[in-house]
Amino acid sequence: MSQFFQIHPDNPQARLVRQAVDIIRSGGVVVYPTDSAYALGCHIGDKSALDRIRRIRKLDDRHNFTLVCRDLSEIATYARVDNTAYRLLRHCTPGPYTFILRATSEVPKRLMHPKRKTVGLRVPDNHIAAALLEDLGEPLMSVTLIMPGDELPLIDPYDIRATLERDVDLVIDGGYCGMEATTVVDLADETPLVLRAGKGDITPFEN
């Protein structure tokens, strides 16, 4: 049975945040809110937790996970960021964007695109996610919480608990956080390419 924490969306309780991070560090899979939808997350180096998320979502090995980061400087640890990309990232983070960038050697190979050696990264504009990442001190390995066969993410924490209480270790109730996917922008090459228009404004990436 999963644990269920009600964390205040504007003033996250430090005690509950620490307990949540302890669960992540010990190999747990958690459901947590972001600025676009609820997500499944786990420790960046934990293959068994990653495999559990794949089973929950019924994902194959080709599905790319996203590294959810604290800030722009943490993105630079895991991705190669040139001047053009840096300006765009600085303008759009934190926010509802996922950026595809060329990965550095800090990224586990299983998280990279096998041919392009790229990785998806984002910095969510959500107080609970920010508190978790700050306490954790490293990115969360994440995917959006969309169940197999569904087109939209789950949005109600109580429904999430009922659906996943035997599959995850913790559900964080952070209130309603939306159901629109992030905007995905490929910054791996010279010209930015919008791969998916979602919640984030695409204007900064239009020529």
Model description:
The chain has 6 helices and 11 strands. With 207 residues, it is α/β, with parallel strands linked by helices. The protein has a single domain (3-199), classed as DHBP synthase. Strands 1, 2, 3, 4, 5, 6, 7, 8, 9, 10 and 11 form an 11-stranded mixed sheet that branches. Helix 1 (14-25) packs across helix 5 (127-136). The model has no long low-confidence stretch (mean pLDDT 93).
Summarize this structure as a short list of keywords or feature phrases.
6 helices, globular, DHBP synthase, alpha/beta, 28% helix
Strand content: 15-25%
Number of domains: 1
CATH topology: DHBP synthase
Number of alpha- plus pi-helical segments: 6
Helical/strand content category? alpha/beta
Sheet bearing the most strands, described?
Answer: 11 strands, mixed
Q: What is the CATH domain class?
A: Alpha Beta
What's the Cα radius of gyration?
16 Å
**Total number of strands:** 11
Report the helical percentage: 25-40%
Query: What letter string, H or E per element, gives the SSE order?
Result: EHEEHEHEHEEHEHEEE
CATH architecture: Alpha-Beta Complex
Shape, per Cα inertia axes: globular
The whole-number mean of residue pLDDT values reads: 93
End-to-end distance, in Å?
A: 50 Å
